[in-house]
Design a protein that fits this description.
Bound molecules: pyridoxal-5'-phosphate
Mean pLDDT: 97
Strand order of the largest sheet: 2-8-7-6-5-3-4
Order of helices and strands: HEHHEHEHEEHEEEHHHEEHEEH
Distance between the termini: 48 Å
Structural class: alpha/beta
Low-confidence stretches: none
Radius of gyration: 20 Å
Number of helices: 11
Shape: globular
Helix content: 25-40%
Length: about 350
């Protein structure tokens, strides 16, 4: 706290990202990164972009990337917004689409950046409790009319990994025709059906995705939103009042090549999905309860062992997972699905600890 801080800055509770350790030997299963590298075609495209070109500003609209995303999803480029990671896209969406002077709704257990953005943009919110089985109860989000400012939730949810079926997403959209519903699909490629197909019927739907997970480009910082042109132009207005060039030249070419490389995308996400299945059954055989996951991470608890103690024991063996301390979930560990080898190291460590 300093006398130079604005009152708003004094009130902020910044987001705390998962640890990025300095020691490279660690088995890192804590921030839902992809264990496989990005598309080799993306790597080549980025290498080729490094040179004299960099003295020039990038395309302010990241046109080639918007075209690739639009083509992949059967949309027009006017229905696509891109940003510096989906975090930036989400931040703009809070300001552009959720700030209506009424509380917005999101689940009580969810991506912990949402309350942070709400603080930054002074958007009131109400955290809606998940059901006892940690699923979203759509009925809780219906019938509020103009008394709410909008809705946001990840699908699959984070950190639970639970998927809301598409017909339930549509019920949420149909029940809130005058409010924007943002579906944050950071993990959708690992087992869910995207809501993008609902855009044509629901002008209140904004779908946000990232290249950080299924495209393995967390280090590049690229995310996007798709929806009705009116929603996208609201995001463009905020972006162009903030930073005209959120994506640099390297990010634009790398992300475009990654979106176009279906073969690499399918190979790597299928490998993650297969490893998830094995990880879940190995954890179950050690007595863990694992929530059904459609993501590249799992959320698990052991009925006889404290989660903080388990996380500390894993850490002692050089394995890092995420442990959240908030009340409803403090007995869970969130474990990123790594390679089979990394997951095997985790299972060996747990087996030793539980013996
Ligand atoms: C639910 C959810 N949304 C969005 C993000 C942000 O992703 P990025 O900013 O890397 O695109 C994350 C990152 O972990 C996430 O878990």
């Amino acid at each position: 706290m300093s006398k130079f801080w604005s009152p708003l800055v004094s009130r902020l509770t910044p987001y705390t990202p998962g640890e990025q350790p300095k020691i490279s030997k660690l088995v890192k299963l804590n921030t839902n990164e992809n264990p496989y590298g990005p598309s080799p075609k993306a790597v080549v495209a980025m290498a080729q972009e490094v040179g004299d070109n960099l003295r020039l500003y990038p395309n302010p609209d990241a046109e080639p990337l918007k075209l690739a995303i639009a083509k992949r999803h059967g949309l027009s480029t006017a229905q696509v917004f891109v940003g510096n990671g989906s975090d930036e896209v989400l931040a703009h969406a809070f300001q552009a689409l959720l700030k209506h002077g009424a509380p917005i709704l999101f689940p009580d257990i969810t991506y912990s950046f949402y309350p942070t953005y709400a603080g930054l943009y002074e958007v009131e919110y109400r955290a809606v409790p998940l059901a006892d089985d940690f699923t979203i109860r759509v009925d809780d989000y219906l019938g509020h009319g103009d008394a709410i400012g909008g809705i946001i939730f990840p699908n699959p949810n984070a950190p639970t990994g639970c998927l809301l079926p598409l017909d339930e997403v549509e019920r949420m959209l149909a029940g809130n025709p005058d409010r924007v519903v943002i579906v944050d699909e950071a993990y959708i490629d690992f087992g869910g059906e995207s809501a993008i197909g609902l855009i044509a019927r629901h002008p209140n739907l904004l779908v946000v995705q990232t290249l950080s997970k299924s495209r393995s480009l967390a280090g590049l910082r690229v995310g996007f939103a798709v929806g009705h042109v009116d929603l996208i132009s609201a995001l463009e207005r905020v972006k162009n009042s903030f930073n005209s060039y959120p994506l640099d030249r390297i990010a634009i070419v790398g992300a475009t090549a990654a979106i176009e490389d279906d073969a690499h995308f399918d190979k790597t996400r299928n490998a993650v999905i297969a490893s998830r299945g094995k990880l879940v059954s190995d954890l179950a055989s050690l007595g863990f309860e694992v929530l059904p996951s459609a993501a590249n991470f799992i959320f698990a608890r052991h009925p006889q062992h404290d989660a903080a103690a388990l996380a500390a024991a894993l850490r002692g063996d050089g394995i890092i997972v995420r442990h959240f301390t908030s009340a409803r979930i403090n007995q869970f560990l969130r474990i990123t699905v790594g390679t089979d080898e990394a997951c095997g190291t985790l299972i060996d460590s747990l087996r030793k600890y539980l013996a």
